[in-house]
Amino acid sequence: MPQRIALVFVLLISSFYASAQTDAELDSKSKEGQEMQAGAKNNVGIIRVKDSIYMIKGRGGNIGVCVGENGVFMIDDKFPETSSSVIQKLNTITSKPIELLVNTHHHGDHTGGNAYMASSGALIFSQENARKRILATYTNAAKKIYDQKIDSIIERQGSKISSEEVRKNEMRSAEKVIGTLEEFVDIPNGALPVVTFPKNISFYYNNEKIEVTHTPRAHTDGDAMVYFTKSNVLHTGDAYISNGYPFIDAKNGGSFSGYMDGLNKILSIADKDTKIIPGHGEIASIEDVKYLISMFRFLKGQIKYQIVAKKTEDEVVAMRELTKEYDDKGFGDNFITTESFIRTLYKELSK
C-alpha cells in the first residue's frame, strides 16, 4: 500500500510539471520533492541517545533504534504514512536492514508502520495482549462495515424481522451474497506481530542484552518496556511520557494503579545515568519519572478527598488549582488535556 500511494503521488506531481520539464528531470525532482514533503509533514527527526541507540521522533510515538553489526533492532514504527520518512532518516545512520522490531503496545501511532517494516524483512514481536488488540482493531472496523452491508441487503429484500430466529436466517442469506465476516476482514500482510510473549523476553543483539518487560494494565494491558542493559537506555512506550499527562486507556485494559506500578518498575530498572526514551516527548531521566510519580500521588490524594466529600466529577474537574503546577508546565497542552486526565482518575478512584 505505501508503494502504491507513493506511485500515485509521483504521477500527480509529474502531470503538474510535465509542460516545463523533461522526463529525466521530472523523475529526479519529483522523487526528491516527495521525500522532502513527507519528511516535513511528519516532522521526522533522529537523535543519538547514547552509543548505538537512537530515537526517531516526529508525528506518532517515539521510535527507538539500536544499530550495529547484526543489523537494526527497532522499537515501534509510528503511522503507515510516516514509514518512508522513518526509513529515510534511518538510512542516514546505517545501511543495515531492520531485522527485529518490538511493538510496545497496540495503538496505531506505534504500530501503524508494521506492514511496511515487515515487507522489508523485519520480524515483529509484541506482548500477547497487544497482538490481540491489533487484530481486534481490524476486526472491529470491518465488522461495522460488514453489519451495515448485511442490514442494507436485508432492508432491500423487504424482510420483516419478527424474531431473532428470522433475523439469523436473513443474515445467513445475506452472507451468501457478501461472504462471512472472517472473509471480509482485510489485514495487511505483516501488520500483526509474528512472535508474542506473555511476560518478558530477552534478545542478544548488536553486542547488547536487550530486556523486554511486560507492564500489566498500565497504559493498556499489552504494554512492554525495552531496556538496553549495556548502553543503559530504556524505552518505555506509553507507560511513561515526558512533559504531559499520560493516556490511561481504560477501554483497552489500562488503569491508574497499573500505570503507577509501571512507573515504579522504571525506578527499579533505571539509575541516575539512564537515558529514558518515552512513548512521546523528549528524552528523560529518572528524576522526570519521579516527578510524574509525585504528581500521581498528589492528585490521587486530592481527588479521593473530594470524592469522600461527595464532590461530583464535574465539580472536581472545575478545581483548576489542583493541577495548576502541572498546567503551568504545559502538561495539559498535549494529546491528553487536563480535563480528560482528571476525569479518568475520578472514574477509577470512585469505584
TrEMBL record:
Pfam families: Lactamase_B (PF00753). InterPro entries: Metallo-B-lactamas, NDM-1-like, RibonucZ/Hydroxyglut_hydro. SMART domains: Lactamase_B (SM00849). One of its GO terms (biological process) is antibiotic catabolic process. Residues 1-20 form the signal peptide. SUPFAM superfamilies: Metallo-hydrolase/oxidoreductase (SSF56281). Keywords: Signal. The keyword Signal applies. Residues 60-280 form the Metallo-beta-lactamase domain. Belongs to the metallo-beta-lactamase superfamily. Class-B beta-lactamase family. PANTHER family: ACYL-COENZYME A THIOESTERASE MBLAC2, METALLO-BETA-LACTAMASE DOMAIN-CONTAINING. This is Glyoxylase, beta-lactamase superfamily II. It comes from Ulvibacter litoralis. The lineage of its organism: Bacteria, Pseudomonadati, Bacteroidota, Flavobacteriia, Flavobacteriales.
